[in-house]
Amino acid sequence: MEKPWLSAYPPGVPAQLDLDPAESVVDVVDRSIARFPDRPAFSNLGRTITYRELDVLHRRFATWLQSLPGVGPGDRVAIMLPNLIQYPVALFGTWRAGMVVVNVNPMYTPPELEHQLNDSGAKVLIVLAQRASVFAEIQGRVGVRHVLVTGIGDLLGFPRAPLVNFAMRYVRRMPAHQVPGSVGWSAVAGSDPGDFRQPAPPTGADLACLQYTGGTTGRSRGAMLTHSNLVANIRQINAWFAAQRIDGEEIMVTPLPLYHVYALMCNCLCYVGTGGHNVLITDPRNIKGLIAELKRWKFTAITGVNTLYQALVEHPDLPGVDFSTLKIASAGGMAVMPATAKRWVEITGHMILEGYGLSETSPVVSINPLTLTAWNGSIGLPLPNTVISLRNDDLTEVPAGESGEICVQGPQVMLGYWNDSDATANCMTSDGFLRTGDIAVMDAQGYFRIVDRKKDMIDVSGLKVYPNEVEAAITHHPAVLEAACIGVPDERTGEAVKLFLTLRPGQSLAVDEVREYLRGSLAPYKIPRHVEFRDSLPKSNVGKILRRALR
Hints:
With 551 residues, this protein is α/β, with parallel strands linked by helices. The chain folds into two domains: 22-356, ANL, N-terminal domain (Rossmann fold, 3-Layer(aba) Sandwich), CATH 3.40.50; 458-550, GMP Synthetase, Chain A, domain 3 (2-Layer Sandwich). Helices cover 27% and strands 24% of the residues. The protein is built from 16 helices and 26 strands. A hairpin with a 6-residue loop joins strand 14 (353-357) and strand 15. Helix 1 runs antiparallel to helix 2 (51-66), helix 4 packs across helix 5 (132-138) and helix 11 (306-313) crosses helix 12 (338-348). 50% of the residues are buried.
């Protein structure tokens, strides 16, 4: 097929990279530790660790994992943490021990957590103390054998660690001893990294991560990402920005959660791969606190979604930040609104570079080049070694200028969905392309613009909401007869959840009651912002509720 995007590539970016299929993420980490031992690797809440310290800490974690009865290479380790230094320590320690990472949203409700732990077969869980009570509710219904409960301050050092943990005493939490069979971070701290027994080192073909996504339905499923998938995406992204990067000197501000595949790759793995420094933001909702942190660093990069950038540009403190060292402000997960992009340029003097990806592609597929002179609202150009083919319903490629489903081929594309061969088969074409369900148009220069979605997925600030899940949850309410859920435009979050309800005869229900009921089974971003009661819902001839009619 034609690849017009190659002529628009930034200078020095090759069309093809020579990738080593045997290379693992552990190899990437080891090289950076050897090259930049005394450079800062991660900072959080006043503590900075060097690559040398990261080496000791993550090997200590790997040693602790090896000490657990019934746990060995290939087993799943679920990490349910916000952005703390404990996250990269657990991440790289898990891979060092030859095990598989299962990233878990710390804000999951008990039903959501139960599904993911059971589906992945996780044997080990690392959870924040403030969220341990969620696990305790389902502990008897999952196969997790070992639980590590950590406090926010556990790796901040003395005297900050005890002070931070003490300050959190008024936050609802469950200490380690209240979760049967669990231990605190002291169990890891007491492990001797010298006792670590290196298993067969992971290779590119080995499974590295189960990254859960809704796929094509509301049932969350794990995208199987290999070490080779992740390393390929590291190499692709770093090649794209090589001309603007100085290895060992870049500072990336990381407000997006590392358990999300976007920040996992673009912040953590890519910057570790070049000896960069990640400044981890634990609570990005505290915009004043985030801006105060921005003022502390001569940062060179930041990632975000439209919601975050919009909150930043609307805050009166942002103009006081020094943006003179900024090279990259990137966005993904949802479309950046034109007004937000314009205001960001006015305040910072830099454009927001949009890209596109999904969990199934490790995640990045395309990015706009830094040579762009004006924000264009596109998702950019396919990365090296990546092909995007726009296809119609018959999977025939459409010409430039016509809309078609984005189908992706490249070394970053997943193996498939864990435990779901049917879903894997349904999302792959016969010639090896991943069907994304997103509809786009390509212009003559090879830039892609998303225009629609095949899926009924709702995109709230880059987080996916599936109507089936919301509808299933609310129809358990005894007053509800029928429900339908759609996404509606929202200036702040891109899309917002709207729920239509019909009630059983003689029943009544208030909007606040609907939201309160759903909070017991859905994460906060899935709770509908809009609720509308109707006498009936539009249906097809066979009785299927027609969401398109509601739109």
